[in-house]
Task: inverse folding
């Protein structure tokens, strides 16, 4: 298999059965920067516009067992970015997520390994989540000194209920796959070898539903929330930038960056957002 | 027991203990047409106005094990009805359901056998659901090429949570009684012989609560949703008629009607809406 | 340990680790009157203003196994109070609860024994609930002929889901600790001897999250609901007083008071609101 284009973080593989794999491959841990989210948007544009495509499976093409480590700290650490760039980053990423949540395509996340923060959010926007037996999943922003974005929290509350979500979010809990399945955060657990087969089997099962009525029902179920999400991204961006520019948060994120670039904790995916 | 009046689809049996059975008997599968919903409304009027009545148990009086097969396709297939008639059908049925959901009476669904679509919705509007060991329950509209009405979906989301409901609805899942109980879609499973005894026992237990505070609490819990439902029925009716009048949906429903009137699938309750 | 001041219903014990115990001690069953809620408000003011304090554990200092028996009937029985006093009672208590629900402190309820109505509501406003193996918990207002306050019901719906909450509330169900844990109404069950150790262990675990991001996330998750609650207390107070002043409710509450002051049922905590 040829290596992807140096600037391309995604690889699209069309499969028989009218669906595509979207393989996330930004070594070493798929941190999501502005370009990553822009490429996700472009791929969703392309696949939704293709009348032969009915579904997408997101998966990791990394060497290590990481789905994605979440947002790139370089996009959040104020001294390395700007209000303007942060605004674009936040709007592009959240508009993508809100749109994925209501995509007329059937969407599956095949999660190999670690799945914190932004990776967990991308997964929650899909219709179905299957995860390997080892790994962990959750929105762990609080542990890094940053708050969970309101609509990301709202999404988890919809998926597993307000009470269970509140406990996980306030205390930055990362769940093991078995716990995540029990709470309804994921739908199935598979062996590492069986992950893609399980994802493709679920896809084929879900594609038995007629597209029009399925997509229209999905839009009815999720449309109001997604519209609020897209609007709210605009509302929250200035306040979020103010927080990111404050002394304590800058100090906190400087520490995270130092850990990531430095010693033995380098590449620990749970240390990112 | 005398056969019901040829035009009456419902039979009311008053029981000791201040409640009544409302027996649904439109052979062969209790398809719900305009008249069926009008009769349900009249019976609810009558029982709510009767100071001696404190509760209702809905059950099936059919020969086969079907609670109801859901809405009558003749009311949905555009060539057989009209915009005007469809409007009346949709408003009468949804206003009945929204009102049942907040009825001051204690309401129980005793579900013998198949309970798709409209029958599932009627059951979800009750305070308690008990079902026989064989049968299935769910909102399977998507499988027939029609979308799940927004407030019906919202009702299931309230009952079992948004995440679980989304999976069932998008993929038209009909649950077995054990699964339905585990998810909270029904409250109890009984043998076919024990169904009515279980329903009546639950009714007697629930009637231990004083009527005024129970009904006032029910109104507080469900009133906002029911008011939105009644309003939304009016909002959605024109768009729904436009869809029902479109080529693809007409073709889809023509196929359903042909299957129902034709061969071996005749009377399969899961083929109806 | 010295007995508390005769007029003080609460005792505050600061602990190593930056949290405090708030011990509820109004013998015999911690009925919550206006002064009780005012003292809770003052203690919350004090602890939130203390930069050394990061958490609160609420527990009972009573001789018998009762967390609190809920609101004092003397505040609800119209002949013993007035519209003006009831208004103050209702606003003080509900503003306290709404504020506790969004307190930047980590909050734990350590529930020894009976926990009906107002005690259940106070517990539900905390971040974590641990309960002894014997006891019961729930909002049992309906059994006493009074309806469940709308936002109290809404709080339980958030915590355990709308469907499960509706069944408990309409039928005044008091849950055993095991059932309560299964539904998510409490988080853990402990022996009577192990209760405080379990509460303190949970507190220490939760205090590992950085305060700022944890509190900001809590505010995002609960702020809208709490703001609506504080507003709604004002909206509902006149209608509630009208009901409390009506013949049937006065008769009902007179009966409760007679039972409490009279024979063998005296002090049964489940007989209070």
Result:
């Amino acid at each position: 298999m040829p290596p992807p284009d140096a600037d391309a973080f995604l690889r699209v593989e069309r499969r028989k059965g009218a669906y595509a794999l979207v393989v996330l491959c930004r070594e070493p841990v798929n941190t999501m920067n502005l370009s990553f989210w822009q490429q996700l948007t472009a791929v969703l544009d392309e696949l939704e516009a293709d009348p032969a495509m009915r579904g997408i499976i997101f998966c990791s093409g990394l060497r290590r067992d990481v789905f994605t480590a979440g947002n790139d700290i370089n996009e959040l650490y104020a001294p390395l970015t700007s209000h303007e760039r942060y605004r674009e980053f936040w709007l592009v990423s959240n508009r993508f997520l809100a749109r994925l949540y209501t995509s007329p395509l059937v969407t599956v996340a095949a999660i190999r390994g670690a799945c914190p923060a932004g990776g967990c959010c991308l997964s929650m926007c899909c219709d179905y989540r299957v995860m390997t037996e080892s790994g962990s999943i959750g929105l762990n922003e609080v542990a890094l000194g940053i708050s969970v974005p309101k609509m990301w929290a709202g999404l988890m509350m919809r998926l597993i209920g307000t009470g269970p979500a509140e406990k996980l979010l306030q205390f930055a809990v990362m769940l093991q796959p078995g716990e995540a399945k029990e709470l309804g955060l994921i739908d199935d657990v598979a062996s590492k070898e069986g992950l893609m087969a399980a994802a493709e089997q679920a896809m084929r099962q879900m594609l038995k539903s007629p597209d029009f009525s399925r997509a229209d029902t999905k839009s009815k179920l999720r449309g109001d929330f997604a519209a609020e999400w897209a609007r709210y991204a605009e509302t929250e961006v200035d306040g979020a930038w103010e927080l990111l520019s404050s002394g304590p948060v800058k100090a906190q994120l400087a520490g995270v960056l130092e850990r990531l670039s430095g010693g033995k904790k380098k590449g620990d995916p749970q240390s990112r957002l």
Q: What stands out?
A: Residues 263-273 of chain C have pLDDT under 50 and may be disordered. The CA atoms of residues 17 and 204 of chain C lie 7 Å apart. The interface with chain B takes residues 141-148, 150, 153, 157, 161-167, 169-172, 248, 252 of chain C (CB under 8 Å). The first strand of chain C starts at residue 10 and ends at 15.
